[in-house]
Design brief:
about 15% strand, globular, alpha/beta, 7 helices
Length: about 150
């Protein structure tokens, strides 16, 4: 865990902005993000990065667990892997959009998507990241989705 934390801090400090600059941005305070991935290491890197930037985070291992969490509390954003056991990310995407259409969802995958999956993503997902992605790409995508949501409220 300490190793992951130091890698995240080091990676963030090399980018255009520093953690201190990002923490000064008031709009981040109180934003809650649900991270869904069956790979613990990826989930932990994303969680640690977003926590360091001032977001509040919760994690789930699959779509079933994520849906349970989503029904318990309000999330401002969901970041989900596509390939997971029990309930995959596309099924989770559809369920969350039915339950809360305005909640932005960032989907991610390291696999080549079928044409049907691409169609489903383009019609329902708010953003898509291909693994492996940089922390900079992740943070930019998160910020953009939260800004778009704030602007439309």
């Amino acid at each position: 865990m300490l190793h992951i934390l130091s890698l995240v801090k080091r990676s963030l400090s090399f980018k255009k902005y520093t953690i201190e600059k990002v923490l000064l941005m008031e709009e981040k305070k109180g934003k809650v993000i649900l991270i869904v991935d069956d790979e613990d290491q990826i989930k932990e890197i994303i969680k640690t990065s977003l926590d360091l930037l001032g977001y509040r985070t919760a994690c789930a291992d699959d779509g079933v667990q994520a849906l349970e969490e989503f029904k318990k509390q309000k999330f401002d954003l969901v970041i989900s892997d596509i390939r997971m056991p029990n309930m995959n990310g596309l099924a989770l995407l559809k369920a969350i959009k039915l339950y809360s259409p305005s909640t932005p969802m960032i989907m991610m995958s390291g696999y080549v998507l079928s044409p049907e999956q691409k169609d489903s993503l383009s019609s329902q997902a708010d953003a898509y990241l291909t693994k492996p992605f940089s922390l900079h790409s992740l943070i930019k995508t998160v910020q953009n989705q939260l800004l778009e949501t704030s602007a439309s409220e």
